[in-house]
Amino acid sequence: MTNLKNALDRIEADLNDLKRQYDLFFQGIRRIEPQEERKVLGWMVRRMGQRKLPNTSDQFRFSSLQTRFNTYSNLWTRTIRDMEEGRLTRDSRGKLSRGTPLGEEAIPPDQLEQVLEQLKSARQECGMTTGEKDLNALREMLRARASEIAGKSGARRVEFRVTIEGGKPKIKAGTR
Question: Can you give the pTM of this predicted structure?
Fold first, then answer.
């Protein structure tokens, strides 16, 4: 009985340590991913899952540890995949962030100007006027919105298109 409790204590301690190791890896402090430690802990969890646990409280504790391990594993796998595919980038401080890499805009300036021209003509079609001051404010708002959308979705680029709905021009966003 105490062997079982010791094994569960060890799994819990190793899981907490592995989480710390992955946190260090994602912060850029640790150079390599703690794959070996993850494999050993995965083996321990699978091995414990094959045992018959007589006590309900031990079953519950193991089940919650197993769930935590699987949840963290999925998170770590997804984060590493996003890093490899370029959806996550490191800033100058080493912090991971989603969105466009440094120096790259979420919307190219030529496409932004094209959208503004389409909006200007759509507003004229609807009988509305557009001043240069309005366009400058809208340009800055669209740049900020494109960066926000790219950051949330993990996309590198955001595309805007102008439509007319209910007699008013609307700007729709999409990612690629």
Answer: 0.58
